[in-house]
Amino acid sequence: MAKKKEVSVEERLRALYDLQLIDSRVDEIRNVRGELPLEVRDLEDEVEGLSTRLQKLDESLADIDEQIKAKKNLIEEAKTLIKKYTEQQKNVRNNREYDSLTKETEFQELEIQLAEKHINEHRAQIDQKGEVISTTKERLKERQNHLKHKKSELDAILAETEKEEAALIKKSEDYKNTIEERLVVAYHRIRTNVKNGLAVVAIERGASGGSFFTIPPQVQAEIASRKKIITDEHSGRILVDEALANEQKEKMAKLFKKL
What we know:
Blueprint: H1 9-33, H2 36-89, H3 95-178, H4 181-193, E1 200-204, E2 207-208, H5 217-225, E3 230-231, E4 238-240, H6 242-258
Parallel strand pairs: 1-4
Antiparallel strand pairs: 1-2, 3-4
Helix pairs in contact: 1-3, 1-6, 2-3
């Protein structure tokens, strides 16, 4: 297998800083999106939940309607029986038969009362569920409108940045392939552990970028010589001199414009 071309420390530093600039640009793009994708997912889940709730409420109303119909049928059957028993009482042969029919009539009257009570309870449930349905529909409409707005906002951002992000991610992978694996691993480890994902930073006003700790002049001179890879003892970041950083920033700015 062919070996990778031997590169100087300066070339490695430039490649690492280029990689950092590319990944930082990806970070910027994702920061623009911010929490929008999560907000959209949460809203989609909420809309789905509300829709499911409405469906269950509608099914519950249909079930209550069926129960009311059943109770009304029971009442009609009871009335028919009462009429039948009343007619039969006219032709009884003794008090025992009369009393038996009276008890049957009273029983059916109680059945009617109980059925009417249940119907009233069911109607109260319908009113209660109707209020819940009305409130849920209002909430669903409000959430759907909010989701539509957020989706539109996200789609607009994606339309502006998706192509650039994909191109940058490919460039990032291309650059990683030009850097020896141990440095890429170290870069990712540092990037994961430091604020803002900055693993490679330039010297600014005698301190490492984003730090208040001054770097001794001798170390600054070593960094500027570009003879070895030096890390900040406080943050662990890889350090490059300001001149190199400015050169790479200018180079990468031209690359970003083409994407």
